[in-house]
Amino acid sequence: xxxxxxxxxxxxxxxxxxxxxxxxxxxxxxxxxxxxxxxxxxxxxxxxxxxxxxxxxxxxxxxxxxxxxxxxxxxxxxxxxxxxxxxxxxxxxxxxxxxxxxxxxxxxxxxxxxxxxxxxxxxxxxxxxxxxxxxxxxxxxxxxxxxx
Length: 148
What we know:
- The protein is an alpha+beta fold.
- 26% of the residues lie in helices and 39% in strands.
- The chain has helices spanning 2-6, 112-145; strands at 34-38, 41-49, 52-59, 63-70, 75-79, 82-84, 86-89, 92-97, 100-108.
- A five-stranded antiparallel beta sheet has the order 2-3-9-5-6, with no helix packed on it.
- β5 and β6 form a beta hairpin.
- It is elongated and about 80 Å long.
- Residues 1-5 have low confidence and may be disordered.
């Protein structure tokens, strides 16, 4: 039991790989899911899933929206269905939104490196299954010829 009492919490931020620009002792400055960092406006969260976030931004001036999601390659930002650049703001995702009422969307997409890794994994799986299928008759034949 003492092992479990002293085991580090696996749900803490320190237990995972972190994006560039963020230290292991990092704690987000904002407590809400998204907030206006610069400018005047309001945000209303519409959808919040693991790979997609949607929000309504009503900006009286040009604003910077800070999203409490770690910045990793693969996140793509959209304002009113138009692709918008996102940036790393001390480890979190930041987007510049123009004045007015807008639909902000963030979507996590595959990067070329992830696609390559997935392709290699899939090819490896096919190779292993093919090898097993090819070896199965030899294994069965070996069992029949063994003396008992």
